[in-house]
Amino acid sequence: MEDDQTVHLLLVYSLKQRKLVETRGFEGENATERAMEAFEAVEREHMWDRETEVALIGADDFETIKKTHASYWMGGDLMSSFHELEALLPRSRTP
What we know:
3 helices; 3 strands; alpha+beta; flat; 28% helix
């Protein structure tokens, strides 16, 4: 199977704690399929939990995610840092 060129981040945000409580990164072979399976499982786990938001975001590279979803990293202790999420990805991409 071909490598998937999309970078995906699965984010679980606690409204009560006002922070990301879980993050997972997906890239490479079957990344989209693996990310969707993980998202669906986490969504089911938190289906009735009004204090938790689950998001799956994706883009062609991490720099795009930083720009399009900057609110996840704003506000100091309210959100996770870029470095923590960047560390989830096994390699950097260059155009």
